[in-house]
Every structure is written in C-alpha cells, then in structure tokens.
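Assemble and predict.
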Amino acid sequence: MAGFFRPLPALEPLTAPFWRACRAGRLEFLHCPRCSYFVHPPRPICPRCRQGELERRAVSGRGVLYSYTVNHKAWYPGQEVPYVIGLVELAEQEGLRLTTNIVNCPPERLRIGLPVRVVFEVLNDEVALPLFEPAEEGR
Amino acid sequence: MTEPLERRAILSGVGQSAIGRRLFRDDLDLTCEAALRAIADAGLRPDDIDGIAAYPGPVQGGPGFSGPGIYEVQDALGIEVRWHLSGLEGPGQIMPVIAACFAVAAGLARHVLVYRTVTESTAAADTGRRGIGAGSAEIRGFGAFLIPFGAMSAANWLALYARRHMHEYGTKREHLAAIALTDRRHAALNPAAVYREPLTMEDYFAARMVSDPFCLYDCDVPVDGSTAVVVSTADAAGDLPHPPVRVNAVGTALGKRPVWDQWPDITTMAARDAARHMWSRTELRPADVDTAQLYDGFSFLTLVWLEALGFCGKGESGPFVEGGSRIALGGELPLNTWGGQLSGGRLHGFGFLAEACRQLRGECGERQVPDCEVAVVGVGGGPVGGCMLLTR
C-alpha cells in the first residue's frame, strides 16, 4: 500500500502489545481503570493518577482527522512521494491521537474534521500499522 | 521578587567561525576558530576559561549534527576547567548557556566557554539530506510511532501543527512567507549570511513543497559553522573591552505533555511554558523588547514564539507579521536581524544568541537596531524550548 519502505517499530516491552494487537486487527491502548484515561504512547503508570495497574482496552478505530500534511520530499533516494501524513484523534478520548497515514482518500477530500476509521497494514508476522481511511458520517 | 540568580551572569564574548555551505572543514577546527574568537572578544586568554559547555555533545543524530564533544574541545584548546557539561535535553539548544549562567552564579567557574557546532552541509554533500531513521530497519523510542508512517522529519511533525494553526486561526501561507521574506531582507545586510539575494512573494509561492503547508523557503538551510559565547560572572563586567550583555531572565519550564503528537494544543509548544516562566522572573514586559531573535528552523516556529512571548495574542501571529513591516528593521519589533536560520544558516539556535549580543553592543552596522537595550532570544520547536532576556 505504501510507496515507500517502512522501518519497523521495535518490539519493546511496553510497546510490543500495541503493534501485536494491530497485527491481530485490533486497535488497543493502555487504559487506566481508576481514572478512565487512555495512556498513549505506552507508559508504565497512569500519568494522571499515577497508579500502575493499566489494562489494555480496544477502541472503535473511529476518529476524526485532527491535522494532516502531504509530504512531497523524498527522505531517502528512491522514496515514492507524495503521501499523506495524518494526525487522527480517536473518538474515545479528546487528545488521544495517532500519527498515521491517510489512505484510500483523494487529496481533495482531505480536511480537518474528516471522519476516519482504522485499516491495518501488515508489515510482518508480529507488526501491523494502524492507517486510516475516510469513514461515512455517523456509521 | 528575589533577584533571579541568572543576573549574576553576563555574556562577555561572542565569536563565530566561517559559516557556509560545504566548507569541508572538521567540526573541531570550526569550533576552535569560534572559541578563540569568543575568548579574544571577551578580552580573555584561553587560560582564563575555567568552564566549558556545549549542545548537544557527541550524541547520535543525523550526519554533521552533533559537533565535537567537550572533551575534544577542552583538549584541543589545552585548557583546564572547574565545571563542564553537554547534553541534548533541556530548555532549547541554548540549554548549556543557561546552565553556564547558573554555574558562574554558583561560583563553580568564572568564565565558561559554550559552543554549538554543525557540519550538516558538508555531511550531506554526497547523500543529500536524509530523513530521520531513513535506512534503519527498526525504530526504537518515540520515533517508533512516527517514522514507520513516513513522518521522518520535524518538517512533517510541525507541518501538522502549522495546518492546525491555520484551521483554528485563519493563518495563511502569506504569513509564513512574511517570516521568510523578512529574514531574507535582513540577511542582505549581514555579510556572514548564507543566502542574501532578494526573495519575493512570487519566489516563495513558486518554490517546491516539502511537507505542506511548508515549502522550501519555510525550512532552514543546513550549513557548516560554529558559534561560541563566553558566559562570565557579572563581577567581571568592568574588565571587558566592550559593554557587557547582561542576563535578565531565563525561561526553562516545560508543561504537559512533551510528546510530538500528544501535545494538548498543537497550535502552541514548549515555547509557551518557557516564555511564561521567563516573564515571571523579570519586571520587563514584551513592550520593553527592542529586538526579538526567534527560532525559525521552520517559519511557523517564529509565529509560535511571537505568540508565546506575548508580542501578540494567541492565534494572532499571522496578522501581526502580515506584510512584514512590523517585524522588519525600522518596525516596532525588528525580528531575526541576522537573517535567521532560513537565510543566515542553520546554526541551531546559537545564531540568534550571537545576534542578540551584537545588537545590544551596537555592533551590527547597517542592520543595527537603534538604541537597542533589551533583546529576547527564543530557541526550539515542538517539545523543545528555552528563552533568555538580555539587556545592555
């Protein structure tokens, strides 16, 4: 899907479950059961209430495009450009965002506030990346 | 208010090496050139230097990014020190300057040499400028949530901020251009600037896009060069061959959450926290500032600094710079009078500091701000930000 080589996110102890969940087709974040706060990027304790029993919780994969940029510069020889980098805010929590790519979307449809939904791009047996495509309003 | 401790420090000397594209000189060579000039400028001899500090030290970074470490420079200069430090994390790239102020205030040293050296132009001569993580098979740390998505440059990360600012406040590309064009007009008056030929709005809009809304002229220019300053204890002020530059206040605060894409309000940055903190340490006010030297690694960052420092209201930086007359020499707030990094070259924060010192000392010739008594330096972007208020 991408016209460029994607370096792999390292599977570190805190972050590996995020990428493996994506590989299984689920968008999951750490979640604090005490103060109901999604914690991303992964941290060992909840930065709001400082308790450490965080749980993994799946989200809907729905959100809105919070900002975007079309990247035109090849960052290494041969990289295919342009491509769209989006900042998506997930529906479950204000400020819970992912830097991602917006796919299956003609450039003229791009706008801040565009409803989007997750799709996964598989990189290998353990890792998939959460990308986003336009979603119908209210569905 | 108890007098802030940083007022026990002065900037006694400033010096720069040759600055240019593809100088093909060693970073240690450039650093020694700048250091010896700064030391002589302060009326000192190398043996008077008893502290050394640098940003960032020998860290991993892009080619030509880090410059020589302090051990190498100390050894090359043949000096002994009572205090030393380098590091990457802190209030902006001027972090070691701020730290040196407190080192001299605490009596750990009397004269600290602080430098920042880049050879990013020579380093990219054969390869072109590559993205962060380009060629890596695997990305660790915070970049793991950015680089696999092709967000391989701060240009991408900050383009997201800039577009949100445009969306919320109606900021336009013409406003970004006002920074680039003003910088270029000022660079024409600075013989050491890298790009000095006129730049028009037509040129700006004809330039290729990097990561929209940033085009080529919104992004700073990799260069080779070293800037050094000497931070001295204020009781040495009478010994200088020129008027001292006094440190009035520093801003070092950092709010929640310093993660590129989780910053609660991406229309502002760490600059806001640092600026608030700095103003809390002084009776001076934005209206007292005669010149602002504000980081422009990307044009948008200068807009954010203008808002953060209170020169205009939140979201109002676009109209503030519109047309460029207010921020040009002769305007109410002459900005980046050396050309900034966009036209003067990417000296990574220290070019602003050098210019602030020279303006306060009245040494800027054609580009001198008349009766310049107060200068502010704001450095950094995204989760990185630090600022200093300097006086004559």
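Strands of chain A lie at 8-9, 28-32, 37-39, 55-58, 62-71, 83-90, 97-101, 115-122, 128-134.
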